[in-house]
Amino acid sequence: MESTPASATHRTAHPGGCPYIPPVKGAPTVPDAADARLETHGSVTPVLLPGGIEGMAVLGYEALREFLQHPEVAKNARHFAALREGRVPSGWPLLTFATVPGMTTADGADHRRLRSLVSRTFTPRRVEELRPRIEELTTTLLDGLADAAEAGGGTVDLRAHYALPLPMAVICELLGVDEEFRSRLHQLSNQVVATGIPPEQVIAANRELVAVLAEVTARRVERPGDDLTSALIAARDEGGDRLGAEELTGTLTLMIIAGHETTLNLVTNAVRALCGHPDQLELVRDGRADWGDVVEETLRLHSPVRLFPFRYPVRDLTVDGTRIPAGTPVLAGYLAAGRDPAAHGPDADRFDVTRPARPGAVRHLSLGHGSHYCPGGPLARLEATVALERLFARFPDLELAVPDAQLPWHEGFVGNSVDKLPVRLGG
Protein backbone atom coordinates (compact mmCIF):
# COMPACT_ATOMS: atom_id res chain seq x y z
CA MET A 1 0.00 0.00 0.00
CA GLU A 2 2.80 2.41 0.81
CA SER A 3 4.67 2.09 -2.45
CA THR A 4 3.49 3.92 -5.53
CA PRO A 5 3.60 1.93 -8.79
CA ALA A 6 5.68 3.58 -11.45
CA SER A 7 2.71 3.76 -13.75
CA ALA A 8 0.40 5.35 -11.16
CA THR A 9 -0.51 9.01 -11.13
CA HIS A 10 0.57 10.51 -7.81
CA ARG A 11 -2.28 12.60 -6.45
CA THR A 12 -2.42 14.76 -3.34
CA ALA A 13 -5.21 16.73 -1.73
CA HIS A 14 -5.62 20.29 -3.01
CA PRO A 15 -8.01 22.32 -0.83
CA GLY A 16 -9.35 24.34 -3.72
CA GLY A 17 -10.22 21.22 -5.69
CA CYS A 18 -11.69 19.03 -2.94
CA PRO A 19 -15.03 17.47 -3.86
CA TYR A 20 -17.47 18.75 -1.28
CA ILE A 21 -19.66 16.28 0.62
CA PRO A 22 -22.81 18.30 1.34
CA PRO A 23 -23.47 18.07 5.08
CA VAL A 24 -26.72 20.02 5.16
CA LYS A 25 -30.11 20.20 3.55
CA GLY A 26 -29.69 20.20 -0.19
CA ALA A 27 -27.55 17.05 -0.24
CA PRO A 28 -28.25 14.62 -3.08
CA THR A 29 -31.54 12.79 -2.59
CA VAL A 30 -29.97 9.53 -3.77
CA PRO A 31 -26.72 8.02 -2.46
CA ASP A 32 -24.89 8.06 -5.78
CA ALA A 33 -22.43 10.91 -5.16
CA ALA A 34 -19.83 8.68 -3.52
CA ASP A 35 -20.18 6.13 -6.30
CA ALA A 36 -19.73 8.84 -8.92
CA ARG A 37 -16.56 10.05 -7.20
CA LEU A 38 -15.11 6.55 -7.49
CA GLU A 39 -15.47 6.84 -11.26
CA THR A 40 -14.31 10.44 -11.61
CA HIS A 41 -11.72 10.83 -8.84
CA GLY A 42 -10.37 7.34 -8.29
CA SER A 43 -10.45 5.01 -5.32
CA VAL A 44 -9.02 7.63 -2.93
CA THR A 45 -10.21 11.23 -3.07
CA PRO A 46 -9.82 14.43 -1.03
CA VAL A 47 -13.02 15.73 0.55
CA LEU A 48 -14.00 18.86 2.40
CA LEU A 49 -15.76 18.06 5.66
CA PRO A 50 -18.16 20.38 7.50
CA GLY A 51 -16.43 23.47 8.83
CA GLY A 52 -13.85 23.43 6.07
CA ILE A 53 -11.86 20.56 7.61
CA GLU A 54 -9.85 18.78 4.93
CA GLY A 55 -10.10 15.01 4.82
CA MET A 56 -9.92 12.04 2.50
CA ALA A 57 -12.27 9.24 1.53
CA VAL A 58 -11.24 5.73 0.50
CA LEU A 59 -13.86 4.51 -1.97
CA GLY A 60 -12.41 1.58 -3.93
CA TYR A 61 -13.00 -1.94 -2.64
CA GLU A 62 -9.39 -3.16 -2.67
CA ALA A 63 -8.00 0.14 -1.42
CA LEU A 64 -10.51 0.22 1.44
CA ARG A 65 -9.94 -3.41 2.36
CA GLU A 66 -6.21 -2.78 2.72
CA PHE A 67 -6.65 0.56 4.46
CA LEU A 68 -9.02 -0.83 7.10
CA GLN A 69 -6.45 -3.36 8.27
CA HIS A 70 -3.28 -1.35 7.74
CA PRO A 71 -1.05 -1.45 10.87
CA GLU A 72 -0.18 2.26 10.56
CA VAL A 73 -3.74 3.51 10.43
CA ALA A 74 -5.17 4.51 13.83
CA LYS A 75 -8.59 5.25 15.30
CA ASN A 76 -7.62 7.35 18.33
CA ALA A 77 -8.27 11.08 17.84
CA ARG A 78 -4.86 11.99 19.25
CA HIS A 79 -3.69 11.30 15.70
CA PHE A 80 -6.23 13.79 14.22
CA ALA A 81 -3.95 16.68 13.24
CA ALA A 82 -6.62 19.40 12.95
CA LEU A 83 -8.11 18.47 16.33
CA ARG A 84 -4.70 18.35 17.99
CA GLU A 85 -3.87 21.78 16.58
CA GLY A 86 -7.11 23.36 17.85
CA ARG A 87 -8.70 23.85 14.43
CA VAL A 88 -11.84 21.82 15.23
CA PRO A 89 -14.57 23.69 17.19
CA SER A 90 -16.38 22.12 20.14
CA GLY A 91 -19.70 22.01 18.29
CA TRP A 92 -18.27 20.34 15.19
CA PRO A 93 -20.98 17.91 13.98
CA LEU A 94 -18.56 14.98 13.58
CA LEU A 95 -16.78 15.44 16.89
CA THR A 96 -18.63 12.59 18.61
CA PHE A 97 -17.43 10.15 15.96
CA ALA A 98 -13.86 11.23 16.63
CA THR A 99 -13.79 11.49 20.40
CA VAL A 100 -16.39 9.24 22.05
CA PRO A 101 -14.45 6.92 24.40
CA GLY A 102 -14.89 3.32 23.31
CA MET A 103 -13.97 0.63 20.83
CA THR A 104 -14.39 2.82 17.76
CA THR A 105 -11.75 5.31 18.92
CA ALA A 106 -9.28 2.93 20.56
CA ASP A 107 -6.20 1.19 19.22
CA GLY A 108 -4.05 -1.76 20.18
CA ALA A 109 -4.35 -3.06 23.73
CA ASP A 110 -7.05 -0.50 24.64
CA HIS A 111 -9.17 -1.66 21.73
CA ARG A 112 -8.72 -5.32 22.62
CA ARG A 113 -9.62 -4.62 26.26
CA LEU A 114 -12.81 -2.74 25.42
CA ARG A 115 -13.85 -5.14 22.69
CA SER A 116 -13.42 -8.15 24.97
CA LEU A 117 -15.94 -6.67 27.41
CA VAL A 118 -18.75 -6.72 24.85
CA SER A 119 -17.77 -9.37 22.31
CA ARG A 120 -19.04 -12.27 24.42
CA THR A 121 -22.55 -10.83 24.00
CA PHE A 122 -22.33 -11.29 20.24
CA THR A 123 -20.89 -14.77 19.84
CA PRO A 124 -22.78 -16.92 17.29
CA ARG A 125 -24.18 -19.08 20.08
CA ARG A 126 -25.40 -16.14 22.18
CA VAL A 127 -26.91 -14.46 19.13
CA GLU A 128 -28.74 -17.62 18.07
CA GLU A 129 -30.21 -17.86 21.56
CA LEU A 130 -31.91 -14.53 20.85
CA ARG A 131 -33.84 -15.92 17.87
CA PRO A 132 -37.02 -16.83 19.79
CA ARG A 133 -37.21 -13.35 21.33
CA ILE A 134 -36.59 -11.68 17.96
CA GLU A 135 -39.33 -13.80 16.40
CA GLU A 136 -41.70 -12.90 19.24
CA LEU A 137 -40.99 -9.19 18.83
CA THR A 138 -41.44 -9.47 15.08
CA THR A 139 -44.86 -11.09 15.43
CA THR A 140 -46.01 -8.32 17.76
CA LEU A 141 -44.68 -5.60 15.46
CA LEU A 142 -46.37 -7.14 12.41
CA ASP A 143 -49.70 -7.03 14.24
CA GLY A 144 -49.03 -3.38 15.07
CA LEU A 145 -48.03 -2.69 11.47
CA ALA A 146 -51.37 -4.03 10.24
CA ASP A 147 -53.26 -1.94 12.79
CA ALA A 148 -51.33 1.21 11.83
CA ALA A 149 -52.03 0.59 8.13
CA GLU A 150 -55.74 0.22 8.81
CA ALA A 151 -55.75 3.42 10.85
CA GLY A 152 -53.81 5.18 8.09
CA GLY A 153 -56.20 4.31 5.30
CA GLY A 154 -54.10 1.42 4.01
CA THR A 155 -50.70 3.15 4.10
CA VAL A 156 -48.10 2.86 6.87
CA ASP A 157 -44.51 4.00 7.40
CA LEU A 158 -42.72 0.67 7.61
CA ARG A 159 -39.50 2.30 8.81
CA ALA A 160 -41.13 3.87 11.87
CA HIS A 161 -43.48 1.01 12.74
CA TYR A 162 -41.29 -2.02 11.98
CA ALA A 163 -37.67 -1.45 10.90
CA LEU A 164 -36.91 0.84 13.86
CA PRO A 165 -38.64 -0.72 16.89
CA LEU A 166 -37.28 -4.23 16.29
CA PRO A 167 -33.52 -3.51 16.58
CA MET A 168 -34.14 -0.79 19.16
CA ALA A 169 -36.00 -3.24 21.38
CA VAL A 170 -33.38 -5.96 20.94
CA ILE A 171 -30.34 -3.80 21.74
CA CYS A 172 -32.09 -2.10 24.65
CA GLU A 173 -33.08 -5.46 26.13
CA LEU A 174 -29.49 -6.64 25.78
CA LEU A 175 -28.30 -3.48 27.52
CA GLY A 176 -31.02 -3.50 30.16
CA VAL A 177 -32.43 -0.13 29.05
CA ASP A 178 -35.97 0.40 30.36
CA GLU A 179 -38.62 1.12 27.73
CA GLU A 180 -39.26 4.66 28.96
CA PHE A 181 -35.80 5.74 27.72
CA ARG A 182 -35.84 4.15 24.27
CA SER A 183 -37.60 6.73 22.13
CA ARG A 184 -35.50 9.56 23.55
CA LEU A 185 -32.30 7.58 23.06
CA HIS A 186 -33.15 7.09 19.40
CA GLN A 187 -33.83 10.81 18.93
CA LEU A 188 -30.64 11.83 20.72
CA SER A 189 -28.46 9.28 18.96
CA ASN A 190 -29.71 10.64 15.65
CA GLN A 191 -28.67 14.14 16.68
CA VAL A 192 -25.22 13.34 18.05
CA VAL A 193 -24.22 11.68 14.77
CA ALA A 194 -25.99 14.14 12.49
CA THR A 195 -23.83 16.10 10.06
CA GLY A 196 -26.02 19.11 9.37
CA ILE A 197 -27.38 20.56 12.60
CA PRO A 198 -26.17 23.73 14.41
CA PRO A 199 -23.22 23.36 16.81
CA GLU A 200 -25.29 24.37 19.83
CA GLN A 201 -27.77 21.60 19.05
CA VAL A 202 -24.97 19.05 18.79
CA ILE A 203 -23.57 20.10 22.17
CA ALA A 204 -27.01 20.03 23.81
CA ALA A 205 -27.78 16.58 22.38
CA ASN A 206 -24.49 15.18 23.67
CA ARG A 207 -25.11 16.56 27.13
CA GLU A 208 -28.63 15.16 27.28
CA LEU A 209 -27.48 11.79 25.97
CA VAL A 210 -24.89 11.57 28.75
CA ALA A 211 -27.58 12.51 31.28
CA VAL A 212 -30.01 9.87 30.00
CA LEU A 213 -27.29 7.20 30.03
CA ALA A 214 -26.44 8.22 33.60
CA GLU A 215 -30.06 7.46 34.52
CA VAL A 216 -29.87 4.12 32.71
CA THR A 217 -26.66 3.27 34.56
CA ALA A 218 -28.13 4.33 37.93
CA ARG A 219 -31.08 1.98 37.39
CA ARG A 220 -28.74 -0.93 36.77
CA VAL A 221 -26.62 -0.04 39.80
CA GLU A 222 -29.76 -0.22 41.94
CA ARG A 223 -31.16 -3.31 40.20
CA PRO A 224 -28.41 -5.20 38.38
CA GLY A 225 -29.56 -7.87 35.99
CA ASP A 226 -28.40 -10.29 33.33
CA ASP A 227 -27.64 -7.54 30.85
CA LEU A 228 -24.60 -5.91 29.26
CA THR A 229 -24.88 -2.64 31.18
CA SER A 230 -24.80 -4.49 34.51
CA ALA A 231 -21.76 -6.44 33.32
CA LEU A 232 -20.00 -3.24 32.27
CA ILE A 233 -20.79 -1.59 35.61
CA ALA A 234 -19.28 -4.59 37.38
CA ALA A 235 -16.17 -4.27 35.22
CA ARG A 236 -15.96 -0.56 36.08
CA ASP A 237 -16.40 -1.15 39.79
CA GLU A 238 -13.78 -3.88 39.94
CA GLY A 239 -11.18 -1.15 39.47
CA GLY A 240 -7.88 -1.65 37.74
CA ASP A 241 -7.84 -0.85 34.04
CA ARG A 242 -10.83 -2.87 32.88
CA LEU A 243 -13.20 0.04 32.22
CA GLY A 244 -13.20 3.73 33.07
CA ALA A 245 -16.30 5.80 33.84
CA GLU A 246 -16.12 7.73 30.54
CA GLU A 247 -15.50 4.48 28.66
CA LEU A 248 -18.68 3.05 30.18
CA THR A 249 -20.75 5.96 28.85
CA GLY A 250 -18.94 5.86 25.52
CA THR A 251 -19.48 2.12 25.16
CA LEU A 252 -23.20 2.46 25.89
CA THR A 253 -23.43 5.29 23.34
CA LEU A 254 -21.72 3.16 20.72
CA MET A 255 -23.83 0.09 21.45
CA ILE A 256 -27.12 1.97 21.27
CA ILE A 257 -26.30 3.86 18.08
CA ALA A 258 -24.62 1.03 16.19
CA GLY A 259 -27.00 -1.54 17.68
CA HIS A 260 -30.10 -0.11 16.06
CA GLU A 261 -29.23 2.42 13.33
CA THR A 262 -27.39 -0.07 11.11
CA THR A 263 -30.13 -2.70 11.28
CA LEU A 264 -32.82 -0.04 10.87
CA ASN A 265 -31.22 1.08 7.60
CA LEU A 266 -30.52 -2.50 6.51
CA VAL A 267 -34.15 -3.62 6.85
CA THR A 268 -35.46 -0.41 5.28
CA ASN A 269 -33.07 -0.66 2.33
CA ALA A 270 -33.82 -4.35 1.77
CA VAL A 271 -37.59 -3.80 1.67
CA ARG A 272 -37.14 -0.92 -0.74
CA ALA A 273 -34.86 -3.02 -2.96
CA LEU A 274 -37.23 -5.98 -3.04
CA CYS A 275 -40.23 -3.78 -3.81
CA GLY A 276 -38.28 -2.30 -6.70
CA HIS A 277 -37.08 -5.70 -7.94
CA PRO A 278 -39.98 -8.16 -7.68
CA ASP A 279 -38.03 -10.66 -9.80
CA GLN A 280 -35.47 -10.91 -6.99
CA LEU A 281 -38.19 -11.47 -4.41
CA GLU A 282 -39.55 -14.26 -6.62
CA LEU A 283 -36.12 -15.95 -6.58
CA VAL A 284 -36.37 -16.18 -2.81
CA ARG A 285 -39.92 -17.45 -2.88
CA ASP A 286 -38.94 -20.12 -5.43
CA GLY A 287 -36.05 -21.29 -3.29
CA ARG A 288 -33.37 -20.19 -5.76
CA ALA A 289 -32.02 -17.79 -3.12
CA ASP A 290 -32.63 -17.33 0.59
CA TRP A 291 -33.18 -14.42 2.95
CA GLY A 292 -29.54 -14.48 3.95
CA ASP A 293 -28.69 -13.76 0.31
CA VAL A 294 -31.06 -10.77 0.37
CA VAL A 295 -29.34 -9.41 3.47
CA GLU A 296 -25.83 -9.79 2.02
CA GLU A 297 -26.74 -8.22 -1.33
CA THR A 298 -28.42 -5.33 0.45
CA LEU A 299 -25.35 -4.82 2.60
CA ARG A 300 -23.24 -4.75 -0.56
CA LEU A 301 -25.30 -2.52 -2.84
CA HIS A 302 -27.22 -0.46 -0.29
CA SER A 303 -24.79 -0.29 2.62
CA PRO A 304 -26.51 1.04 5.77
CA VAL A 305 -23.51 3.34 6.19
CA ARG A 306 -22.41 5.50 3.31
CA LEU A 307 -19.21 7.11 4.63
CA PHE A 308 -17.96 6.34 8.13
CA PRO A 309 -15.63 8.61 10.17
CA PHE A 310 -12.67 8.33 11.01
CA ARG A 311 -9.28 6.71 10.66
CA TYR A 312 -5.93 8.52 10.68
CA PRO A 313 -2.62 7.49 9.10
CA VAL A 314 0.09 7.76 11.74
CA ARG A 315 2.55 8.64 8.97
CA ASP A 316 2.19 9.67 5.34
CA LEU A 317 0.75 6.77 3.35
CA THR A 318 0.31 6.22 -0.35
CA VAL A 319 -2.91 4.40 -1.10
CA ASP A 320 -3.54 3.37 -4.70
CA GLY A 321 -1.30 6.18 -5.93
CA THR A 322 -2.72 8.90 -3.67
CA ARG A 323 -0.76 10.33 -0.76
CA ILE A 324 -2.71 10.66 2.49
CA PRO A 325 -0.77 12.88 4.91
CA ALA A 326 -0.33 11.74 8.50
CA GLY A 327 -3.13 12.96 10.77
CA THR A 328 -5.70 13.31 7.98
CA PRO A 329 -9.25 12.28 8.97
CA VAL A 330 -10.24 9.54 6.54
CA LEU A 331 -13.77 8.38 5.74
CA ALA A 332 -14.42 4.72 4.93
CA GLY A 333 -16.53 4.67 1.75
CA TYR A 334 -18.56 1.52 2.35
CA LEU A 335 -21.26 2.38 -0.17
CA ALA A 336 -18.85 3.09 -3.01
CA ALA A 337 -16.75 0.02 -2.25
CA GLY A 338 -19.83 -2.16 -2.52
CA ARG A 339 -20.50 -0.77 -6.00
CA ASP A 340 -16.92 -0.92 -7.28
CA PRO A 341 -16.96 -2.60 -10.74
CA ALA A 342 -13.34 -3.65 -10.30
CA ALA A 343 -14.45 -5.84 -7.38
CA HIS A 344 -18.00 -6.78 -8.26
CA GLY A 345 -18.04 -6.80 -12.05
CA PRO A 346 -19.59 -4.56 -14.69
CA ASP A 347 -23.07 -5.09 -13.21
CA ALA A 348 -21.98 -3.97 -9.73
CA ASP A 349 -24.85 -1.48 -9.57
CA ARG A 350 -27.47 -4.22 -10.10
CA PHE A 351 -29.38 -5.80 -7.19
CA ASP A 352 -28.83 -9.54 -7.62
CA VAL A 353 -29.53 -11.86 -4.69
CA THR A 354 -27.84 -14.75 -6.52
CA ARG A 355 -24.57 -12.86 -6.97
CA PRO A 356 -21.68 -15.14 -5.99
CA ALA A 357 -18.85 -13.94 -3.80
CA ARG A 358 -15.52 -13.59 -5.56
CA PRO A 359 -13.08 -16.40 -4.74
CA GLY A 360 -10.76 -15.35 -1.95
CA ALA A 361 -12.63 -12.10 -1.23
CA VAL A 362 -15.28 -11.04 1.24
CA ARG A 363 -18.59 -10.19 -0.41
CA HIS A 364 -18.65 -6.65 0.95
CA LEU A 365 -17.06 -4.40 3.57
CA SER A 366 -20.23 -2.82 4.92
CA LEU A 367 -19.72 -4.17 8.44
CA GLY A 368 -16.06 -3.23 8.46
CA HIS A 369 -12.91 -5.29 8.06
CA GLY A 370 -9.92 -6.14 10.21
CA SER A 371 -9.71 -5.66 13.97
CA HIS A 372 -12.57 -3.13 14.00
CA TYR A 373 -15.02 -5.43 12.23
CA CYS A 374 -18.47 -4.83 13.71
CA PRO A 375 -18.97 -7.28 16.61
CA GLY A 376 -22.74 -6.91 16.24
CA GLY A 377 -22.70 -8.16 12.65
CA PRO A 378 -24.19 -11.60 13.47
CA LEU A 379 -27.02 -9.96 15.42
CA ALA A 380 -27.79 -7.48 12.63
CA ARG A 381 -27.91 -10.32 10.12
CA LEU A 382 -30.22 -12.40 12.31
CA GLU A 383 -32.60 -9.50 13.00
CA ALA A 384 -32.78 -8.53 9.32
CA THR A 385 -33.26 -12.11 8.12
CA VAL A 386 -36.10 -12.79 10.54
CA ALA A 387 -37.69 -9.38 9.91
CA LEU A 388 -37.71 -9.76 6.12
CA GLU A 389 -38.82 -13.39 6.02
CA ARG A 390 -41.75 -12.82 8.35
CA LEU A 391 -42.74 -9.50 6.79
CA PHE A 392 -43.13 -10.89 3.28
CA ALA A 393 -44.73 -14.11 4.56
CA ARG A 394 -47.38 -12.08 6.39
CA PHE A 395 -47.83 -9.48 3.62
CA PRO A 396 -46.85 -11.11 0.28
CA ASP A 397 -48.37 -8.26 -1.74
CA LEU A 398 -46.54 -5.48 0.10
CA GLU A 399 -45.62 -2.56 -2.17
CA LEU A 400 -44.31 0.99 -1.96
CA ALA A 401 -47.07 3.55 -1.51
CA VAL A 402 -45.18 6.25 -3.43
CA PRO A 403 -42.74 6.06 -6.35
CA ASP A 404 -39.25 5.20 -5.24
CA ALA A 405 -37.82 8.46 -6.59
CA GLN A 406 -40.14 10.42 -4.29
CA LEU A 407 -38.98 8.79 -1.05
CA PRO A 408 -37.43 11.37 1.32
CA TRP A 409 -33.72 10.67 1.67
CA HIS A 410 -31.84 10.86 4.94
CA GLU A 411 -29.88 14.11 5.18
CA GLY A 412 -26.15 13.95 5.79
CA PHE A 413 -23.54 11.55 4.52
CA VAL A 414 -23.03 8.90 7.24
CA GLY A 415 -26.28 6.95 7.32
CA ASN A 416 -27.57 5.63 4.00
CA SER A 417 -31.33 5.21 3.84
CA VAL A 418 -34.63 6.98 3.41
CA ASP A 419 -36.26 8.82 6.31
CA LYS A 420 -39.66 7.24 5.67
CA LEU A 421 -40.84 4.14 3.83
CA PRO A 422 -44.59 4.40 3.20
CA VAL A 423 -45.99 1.08 2.04
CA ARG A 424 -49.30 -0.62 1.30
CA LEU A 425 -49.55 -4.05 2.85
CA GLY A 426 -51.97 -5.48 0.32
CA GLY A 427 -54.44 -8.27 0.81
Which sheet architecture does the biggest sheet show?
Answer: 5 strands, mixed
Q: Give the helix/strand class.
A: alpha+beta
Q: What count of domains describes the coordinates?
A: 1
**How many beta-strand segments?**
10
CATH architecture: Orthogonal Bundle
What's the alpha carbon Rg, rounded to whole Å?
A: 21 Å
The first-to-last residue Cα distance is 55 Å
Uncertain spans: 1-34
User: Which fold name corresponds to the CATH topology?
Assistant: Cytochrome p450
Helix content: 40-55%
Supply database-style keywords.
427 residues; alpha+beta; Cytochrome p450; five-stranded mixed beta sheet; three-stranded antiparallel beta sheet; 10 strands; 48% helix
Protein model, in words:
This protein is of the alpha+beta class and 427 residues long. The chain has a single domain, classed as Orthogonal Bundle (Cytochrome p450), CATH 1.10.630. Helix content is 48%, strand content 9%. It has 18 helices and ten strands. It has a five-stranded mixed sheet. A three-stranded antiparallel sheet has the order 4-10-9. A hairpin with a 3-residue loop joins β1 and β2 (53-58). It is globular and about 60 Å long.
What is shown here, in short?
The chain is α+β, with helices and mostly antiparallel strands and 427 residues long. It has helices at residues 33-41, 61-68, 81-84, 95-99, 108-119, 124-129, 131-151, 158-163, 165-175, 182-192, 199-222, 228-237, 245-276, 278-285, 291-301, 334-338, 341-344, 377-394, and strands at 44-49, 53-58, 73-74, 155-157, 308-313, 317-319, 322-324, 330-332, 399-400, 422-424. A five-stranded mixed β-sheet has the order 1-2-8-5-3. Strands 4-10-9 form a three-stranded antiparallel β-sheet.
